[in-house]
């Protein structure tokens, strides 16, 4: 024991620490000899920050010593993963908890108004122009997917990016995102002839909940065709939970030698990108744009080319993608906030804050629909395009720290204790909050049918959504893909039959023909117009899947299922009359556990009865022109 005491005393004197600091925590003091000098420093910091309770239950030396060391490993992680460390976390928590207790409004002094931005109409000349500019710029972009969320509202057991975006082809979200980025890379390179093809970097932010599953999904699918070096995973750490208004850290209920932790929110993406050093690498490689997007919006890439075009044309430092929003719909509203001191900013105000803010600033009805039938505040779909140079400048100042908030659930009106522990959170769309007034912050609104169909709600909750509001479920997410593709083809002149109404998992949805294509077939409206010619028609019960890049559809009459695949060097003209029994949507009950979860959560599965499927594996020019026949037998 004497030598233990000696070595502890030595460590303390090397650190210049007076041993008295730990007199308030005898249990910790007794275990000092187990700790490294760095751990002793951390212990001192914790005690100074009023966290003595963390050691109250520590056992005598010799009992659970490994757990005690592991405790400090965790503290070291919490300290290093938060900008400016735990001390700063606790200080901010105390301030925010005091504001929350006092009922202070974070928007005090601000008046909301409707900001100006670009409202695009799919397929008009303006849209086509922005798409072309966007494709040119795309090779100067890096994509960042935030995919650390567990998706508790969806209740799906796996990671959300592994869910099929649609079940006609079974392509999962991650595959679709990667194929879209690769198609953009290729298209951008073709426009900028002569330049060396740049690989578009792709970052995925994961968390402990999603990291290993994401790696597994990528590795077991050869990165869906992307070069593994193009993809970087950045894992966000959770943050410490708080037990009370003094910001005392919560002991994990399952292990008294751990601090309880919870997710900090998608705002972590900025500090992770900053500390990774990637931003400087991108700048040195000549990149100009960073695009942030979320895990389950299967329509997003319909909006990306035009939105990059808007960023480049308007020279926006920040461009938020938005859709028309119904008043009180559960998505944030893009708002201009003007402070009494003259400051202004264009920022997302979360849906639960917009209505009270409006009421408190002279709009007695709060958030209501205007003449257009929509709220005048566009809905934030949380897909951001940031200009890299100004982004680096800003992060150099903030180290990627984003304004946080806290949302404690109090036990009673005295607001002195919480129902359960809370923590600080941050959102990636709050990035513009610290920007100087000269920053160019804008937004781009596109139609919801074209750009936004997230999968967030489980079937039970979706079925309870008030009529007229979006379900945001796996059912509606998939149907939205078919609807968008059908409407795009209609715009290009194809006679696409009207949808029928059907109910799946208690949700009434429009069922359009199941039309899907690979991103390399068409990324922009101009691509579609080039590849669709003559008089084409598609019946409601039809399915059409196009997988090859050089497939041209001309004078096609489709009533059934048609699947065309072709290698790059095979140019295929598809026309004539395709008629067969097709693929049918068969209803399934989501409570039926004999059916895979990814199917049950949509309430249907695709029954492949009959199809015309052609796969062109040799280079050359081909024509597929079936004749119209009465029987189900197809002559090609
Ligand atoms: N995510 C992380 O990567 N890490 C985290 O810690 C948390 C989440 P949700 P929510 O799309 O309409 C956002 O849970 O609450 C990822 C916007 O704040 O789906 O619905 C997660 O994996 C809101 O303004 O977000 O709200 C996912 O990819 C509105 O735009 C993403 O972050 C809304 O999305 C979003 O997580 C929307």
TrEMBL record:
Q: Which family does it belong to?
A: Belongs to the USP family.
Q: What Pfam families does the database record attribute to this sequence?
A: UDPGP
Could you tell me the keywords of this UniProt record? Answer: Nucleotidyltransferase, Transferase
Q: List GO BP terms, alphabetically.
A: UDP-N-acetylglucosamine biosynthetic process
* Organism this protein belongs to: Parasponia andersonii
Q: Which reaction does it catalyse?
A: a monosaccharide 1-phosphate + UTP + H(+) = a UDP-monosaccharide + diphosphate
Enzyme Commission number(s) from the entry: 2.7.7.64
Give the protein's cofactors.
Answer: Mg(2+); Mn(2+)
Q: Which domain of life is it from?
A: Eukaryota
Among the GO molecular function terms of this UniProt record, one is: UDP-N-acetylglucosamine diphosphorylase activity
**Which enzyme class?**
transferase
Q: What is this protein called?
A: UTP-monosaccharide-1-phosphate uridylyltransferase
